[in-house]
Input
Amino acid sequence: MILHVLPGDAQVPAFNESGIEGEMLVCREALVEGDISGDSLDEFFINRAAFINSVYDEDPSNYNARVASQFRRLLEIHTGDEANLWFEYELFCAVNMWFCLDLLNRTKSDVYRVAPVYLDEENRWDGFGGANGDRMRQCFEGRIKLSSDDIQLGSDLWTAFRNKDTEELLRLSSTSTNAFPYLIEVGKAAAEIDSSPAAIIAEIQLEGINNFNEIFLEFRRRAGVYGYGDSQVKHLMEKQIV
Output
């Protein structure tokens, strides 16, 4: 069995266009925000569904059907099966990937990282946006097979992120591995997630920028490493108002 975990529904058309063999799963989560507690996987998903319901007014049953079900498929793969993780470089995608690696750490499958290898340094946080079938094939051809150490590192990063263990996040992110480009920058962003994004938004507003679209674009320019969408930036702004 060959599985491909895409970072969102936006990448589905390009993946279908690519003609790459395998079954497609979609990661429809934003684990950079909200409750990520839970003593078991079931409890974790219950807490996530409650958070999504409270913020986005989504029925918890939809979460189980559209989100949790995709992740649970990763626990069903066996030795010799292949999991391809299509995740971008920034923190938003990195945290989702770390969670996937924590799940895959319980299996013996072959795991590959598929990244947007066509991006240059300046545009590294842009991700797969705008990629067509040819770009997707290029990324797949440049995939990196993860070693057991790489998979364990991803699992450990997820644990440190869940525990808000900034020291451990910084220590782990200093690990040298081709599997996680820009890990030092991403780890630093993860360690500062409770303070830095909000401070950047406040700084932008103090400069007299009040239109949301302009705030969002400026936040992306200054803090692209977080990979936040407009929903995350809006939530940060709402918290500041409260």
